[in-house]
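Appendix B, Record 12. Input sequence as logged:
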Amino acid sequence: MAPPKASFAAANEGLKTITNTTLGIIENVETVVTGFYQPDSATGSCTKPPTVTETAEGSEQKQLDALVLARDAATLIKAHSTKISLFIINEPFTPSAISTVLRQLLEGPIPALASAVEQCRANIYTQLVQRDLAWKCARLLKELREFISRIPQDGKVLPQNQRTGTPGAAKADKGSIVATGVLWGLCDEIVGFCNLGVAGYLVHKAENFRDTLKDVLDELKEWYEEQDEQDDDDDEAAGSDEDGDAEVEHSDGGEGPADDASNAHTATQAMLDSFMDSQQQIPRGDPQKIRPRLDSTLRRLRLTVLLFSALIKRRLKTLPKLPLRSETDSTAVSRVDEVMPLLRSLTDRFNSLAVAFYELDSAEINRYMDECFFDAFAVAELLAKPWEGQKDEFTDWVAKFRMEIRKD
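Logged structural output:
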C-alpha cells in the first residue's frame, strides 16, 4: 500500500533537509581532517586544525585507540552507504528510510572518523601514520559527500543512466553504482591500514621502498650489461671497418657519383646514430669516466638494499608496542620520524641517480651519488643502536656497512 501523498511529500522534504545538513557537516569535517596532513603554504609543515569534538578542560579522558576507531567508523560507513545505494535505485522510493541512515551516519561513523584522526597524534603514532590516516580519511569523506549528493531530490529512484553512468563520461558522471564501489574501496583501504597497526604499516612502507630500490638496481644492472654488449659490437664493427679500408686502399677503381652518395648517406646516418645513442650508450673510451662510477653505484646500491632488509628485520619489526601509552617516552617515535623520510628520499634519489646515468649527465651523477650515500650513511647511523640498550648484532653490522659504503 502506497503512503499518502501528503506524508510522502513531508518525508521527501525532510530528506532534502537532512541531506543538505549531512553534506554541510561532512564538508566541515573534511576540512578539519585535511588540516592534519596538508602542509601550510607558508611554513611547509602541517598545522593542527581546530578540534571537532570538545572536552571539558582538565577532565580525565580515556585514550582511545585511533586506528580501531577509524577501522570501525570505515566499516559502518561502508554498511550505511550500501543501504543508501540500494534505497536510491529500488522501487518504491523511501525517503524516510534514507533519512534514518543519514542520521545514523551523523550520529556515529562521521564524528568517529574525525575523532580518530584527532586522536592519532604524531608523538604517539608517528608522523607518517598520522598523516596517512588523515589523508585516507579525507579521501573517504570527499567520496562520501559526492555519493550523498546523488540522493534524488524529486522523490523518485535514480534513472538508469544515473545508476550506471555514461560510457566515456567525466568522473562526476560515473553513476551511483561505480560511486558506491569507489566508496567501498576507500573503506576497505582504511580497514586494511588500521589492521596493520603502527609497526606493521611502517614495515609495509619500508618494504615498498626496498622493493623500489631493487627495481632500480635491476634496471641499472641491465643497462650496464647493455653497455658491455654495445662495446663488443663496436669492437667487431671496428675490426670489419679496418678490413674494408685495407681492401679499398689496394683496389684499382676510383669512386664514382654513386659511391659519393653512398658515403655521404653513411656519414650522415652515422652522425644521427651517434646523436641518438649518446643518450643511452656510454661513448667509446668513456671520456667522462661514467663506467667506474656506475660500478661504484651498483656495489653501494646492493649494500643499501641489504641495509633496508636488515633494518626492517632488526629495527622496525622489533619496535616497542605503538601507539605509546605515555607521551613522555617517545624516543622510539622520534627516531622513526627521522628515519622514514630518509628512506623515502633515499629511494627517490636513487631513481634520480639512475636517470642521470641514462642521460650520461656527469655533474648530476656526482651530485646524486653524494646525496644517496650520505643518506644511506645517515639511515644506518640513526638506527645503529637498538630501541633499548646500546648495542646488539645489528649495531656491529652497521659498523661494517659504514666502512663498506665509504669505499669507492
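The longest helix spans residues 176-250.
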